[in-house]
Amino acid sequence: MNDKVNTTSEQNGNSSCVGTCTNLDNDALLSLGPKNRYSEIPSIRLFLAKYNTYPSTLDCDNDDEDTPFHATTILNYIRDELKHDITKDCVSRRYNRTAKQKYVHSRLSDLGNGIMISFNGSHLDSEILNKNQLKADYDGKYFLVVSDLKIYHLPEHDSFAQDLADRFSQMTVCSSKSCMLQMVCRNQCGYYLDGIRVKKPLITDLALHYGNNFLTTHDKILNDLNKKESKGIVLLHGVPGSGKTHYIRYLIQEVQDKTLIYVSPDMAKEISSPEFLPFLMRHENAILIIEDAENIIQDRSSSSLPSQAVANLLNLSDGLLGDAMHQQIIATFNCDLTAVDPALLRKGRLVANYEFNKLDLESSKILSDKLGFGTESVTEPMTLAEIYNQSDNNNKSIA
């Protein structure tokens, strides 16, 4: 990259490019720029006012939307390498209640001689995988990240702008991914889906969280869920706090091209209602996620009034409905496996059955140390919830 471009000249308006507007008065000139939204820095209008030229624009994008730019690293680069005075930038600040820090939400940096850089919508993120080993901004874990990064420039600096964007592409962090989960709701008109966004936990080592024996089970579950026109049921059970929900948050981010439908514990009993199956029939090739499913999976022979919910699950997972709708089911529960209706455990219907438990002592120490808690307080096998929540000041949670 050629870093020797002149970024100090105040000359403007002498270009013969198509965007040059030397004969317009200020009002007419500024009217060429888009109206700025509330609290947004009017970057194009400021460029017009200074350079009398409508700018060329380069959007700095990454292939992965969950890999934002680290705003601070970019700012340090243009300050140290391009000798830009950041005290002259136009900024807007906000306050983050969680981090208890004021931060720059938007920034416009004018490098001089027809190059401006716009940071729009920056925010603090603590759920970061820092693969480039960049320095955090606050409290050792909060990074100031931005996805909307633009370079405004005069046409003669097009090559420099592209080189600059390439350099910025190396100044990124991995933010926790998220996916849309559809939650079953009900009103006077019947059942409907409402979307909620779920972030992916930063689990870099499944074996460290769930043990080496779990990897084969995970591969089997993921491969089956990603099959087209597949069916079957996944049963995840174990002691409270052992990480069942934490794992599901991780798992659903890896599922491709399928609707994810969350059935809350309160709504789970509705599976036995006559109106529920017709509602589900509108959502073929979906994955149902049912938490705390004890009441709908219990052995029918142990009750004087068997629940229709078990029969509906059987039909969805391996009956005629399953053949037609290709829906898969993930059910979590805390009761003993012996309480589950045996029909749900039959081969051909059951994709996987896994019991989550406490990590052994050595694994608990390793994970605790990796999370920054050390090992002094780890004296016995622990659940993931116990490991993650060793400090009252820790904001992580797990279920």
Automatic annotation (TrEMBL):
Which Pfam families does the annotation name? Answer: AAA (PF00004)
Which Gene Ontology molecular-function terms are recorded? ATP binding; ATP hydrolysis activity
What Gene3D superfamilies does the annotation carry?
P-loop containing nucleotide triphosphate hydrolases
| Ranges where the AAA+ ATPase domain occurs | 230-356
Q: What is this protein called?
A: AAA+ ATPase domain-containing protein
